[in-house]
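Weekly sync, protein design subgroup
Attendees: M.S., D.O., the rotation student, P.L. (late)

Item 1: inverse folding check
M.S. brought a backbone from last month's batch and wanted to see whether the design step gives back something sensible before we order anything. D.O. pointed out we never logged the input encoding, so this time it goes straight into the notes. Structure tokens as presented (238 positions):
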């Protein structure tokens, strides 16, 4: 019959191709498609372990830094996005990956606000303080401790120097982006008797604000309102 044709069996329909693409995005970044916000605020979630150079076991909830970095670059490039909201519930993870994310957020030309929910532990702390303003939920927790190394140390002296330099990088970033002093940060890091490893400090809600690590206690409403205020200020200076 004229006017009727069938697609070749080995070709996908547009709907099938879109479905496969959506499933692949779901596997890779946890979204049916990459976020295209209709508003002017982009939300970035940092959850589970921050995965860096080492691939973590499949049963571990992770945030992969190679997924986060392109999103932050897109935030900077997209003129429709005027602010970044970072939601944190992380146990920490790869130190260099966490620092890379922190440096990118702090170097954005657009205002940013972080909100620590369940936890912003370990290398999650630099990410939390990298934003223009920071909030923590009343029940949110942050664990401050020195960098720890697990595994066989073959060159003890060299390994110690490497960890010491890495610790200095983390400390300097936190001090520069919060109101904590170097002495105050080290006191929290080397407190004994509070953690299983007998070194470090757990800060809950208001305590993280009291020591100068986080700006304010609040939730989504407060963080969102502050980000809109910063966006307004930023627009007025341009």
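Designed sequence read out in the meeting:
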């Amino acid at each position: 019959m004229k006017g009727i044709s069938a697609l070749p069996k080995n070709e996908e329909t547009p709907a099938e191709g879109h479905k496969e693409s959506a499933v692949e995005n779901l596997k890779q970044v946890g979204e049916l498609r990459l976020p295209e916000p209709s508003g002017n605020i982009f939300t970035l979630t940092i959850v589970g372990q921050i995965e860096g150079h080492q691939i973590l076991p499949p049963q571990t909830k992770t945030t992969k830094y190679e997924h986060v970095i392109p999103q932050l670059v897109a935030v900077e490039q997209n003129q429709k996005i005027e602010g970044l909201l970072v939601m944190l519930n992380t146990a920490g993870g790869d130190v260099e990956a966490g620092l890379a994310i922190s440096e990118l957020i702090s170097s954005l030309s657009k205002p940013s606000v972080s909100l620590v929910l369940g936890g912003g532990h370990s290398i999650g702390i630099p990410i939390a303080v990298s934003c223009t303003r920071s909030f923590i939920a009343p029940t949110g927790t942050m664990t401050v401790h020195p960098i720890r190394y697990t595994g066989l140390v073959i060159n003890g002296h060299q390994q110690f120097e490497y960890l010491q330099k890495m610790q200095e990088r983390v400390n300097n970033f936190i001090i520069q982006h919060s109101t904590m002093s170097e002495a105050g940060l080290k006191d929290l890091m080397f407190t004994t008797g509070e953690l299983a490893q007998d070194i470090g400090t757990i800060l809950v809600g208001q305590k993280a604000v009291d020591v100068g690590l986080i700006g304010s206690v609040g939730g989504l409403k407060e963080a969102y309102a502050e980000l809109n205020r910063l966006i307004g200020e930023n627009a007025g200076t341009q």
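Discussion: The chain has one domain: 40-237. The domain at 40-237 is CATH 3.90.226.10 (2-enoyl-CoA Hydratase; Chain A, domain 1).
Action: P.L. to compare against the previous round before Friday.
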